[in-house]
Amino acid sequence: MYFNQKILVVFRILAAFNQYSSATSTTYIPNGKPFSITYANDYSVQGFLSIDTVTISGIIVKNQTIAQCAFLNGMTGNVNDGIFGLAYSSLTKDGEKPVFYNMWSQGLISEAIFSSYFNPDPKAISGGVDSSKYTVSVTYAPVVLAGYLEFQMTSVTVGSTIVSRSANAIIDTGTSLTIGPVTEVRALNHALGGTLDSSSGLV
Known about the structure:
Layout: E1 6-7, E2 13-14, E3 29-38, E4 44-56, E5 59-73, E6 83-84, H1 99-105, E7 114-117, E8 123-126, E9 141-142, E10 145-146, E11 149-153, E12 156-158, E13 161-164, E14 167-170, H2 182-192
Antiparallel strand pairs: 1-9, 2-6, 3-4, 4-5, 7-8, 10-11, 11-14, 12-13
């Protein structure tokens, strides 16, 4: 993604087996502002903001605002460290800077680009792309709304079937849900052969 201009991908890491403790951190700075987030699947989190040094693949980001969760609703079965958000600061509670903003402003990366790949081992790449991970040319699309990374699609097709024409879409690798207008989603499910799971209401 060209920062603030173009999209390659938005990446949220659902990592595992580590737990942050401000009580044992020597670089922790109290903030204390409360936060509450409800996600599209009705899961929710509540807690408070803190400031600390964050290290990602050897990149040391100082004075990074983070959200510490004190209450989880619907996520008790997950074994995750948390969510590593790379969308725009307009989605934060009070305009806090996401970690990628601080990587760039602190001069820690050479290019304001991040990318990700998922096979076989999911990874995020800050400051560029790894050309060994793909064989086709990269297509960039302008961001049309700087909140989530929203861009305009020309169409959605399954084989030769067009299920949606020009529409805006959001790239969000941190969700397993595909959400959209009822008519277009029904057409997509039909083209893919999806069936409704009556217990969850999902296809």
